[in-house]
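TL;DR need structure tokens for one chain.
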Amino acid sequence: MKIEVEGLEFSYKEHAVLRGLDFSAEGGDVVAVLGPNGVGKSTLFRCLLGFLHPQKGGIRIDGRDIRTMSSAETARCIAYIPQSVSPAFNYTVQDTVLMGLTNQLGTFQSPRSGDVRKVVEVLDSLGIAHLRHRGCGQISGGERQLTLLARALIQNAGILVMDEPTANLDYGNSWRVMERIADLARGGYTVIFSTHDPNHAFMHANRVLVLKDGGALAVGAPREVLTEGVLSRLYNINVLIRRVPYNGGEATISLPAGAANSD
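>> reply
TL;DR here they are.
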């Protein structure tokens, strides 16, 4: 499934947040969205999900203008995965995932046995089927993030939008979640995720969208556009890019290198 953003502009009253933004992604792409706090990443995601309507420009899904789509139609195309947080209610993993079927059920319709089987299959594909009867308040942060991912997958949407999917996760759980995301892209999903860590883009994305001052500072393959100059300008610190041996090949990593730039 392909999503195209063209000339996107959005303002909160007189405060312009997004200016002339252009990018696209399709099945198999993993797009990392980078930028400092307040740069417009959350606003961009709200526009992609149809929660906000841009003042200029447009968003198309498989060629169709998102403004012509109902909320149910949008939900069948795009699924949103928020940051993992401690739940207010201790719903089971299975029930939490079943909530992802809301757009497919009638107003008074309950999930059927076939729906439960689908949930178990999705949980199994993510390696957490054994947790399905556990409360979400009784599992780890990484397991909760995978549960939210499963809830999105059960929507059967081709595009996954993820808000800092590894926020508050330890190193191991962060790696496992990002590997699952890469697996989904290899299976044909279009994945767009925000992150504050350039190394997530180097390790797990094939494209990157760098936001600064409401516009795209850079768009393209991480190794090509995430240069020392771009990252230093983006975060106002000196950044080094290095190639290191990894799994019989080579990996690219970024390292902070000291004092802030003078500009």
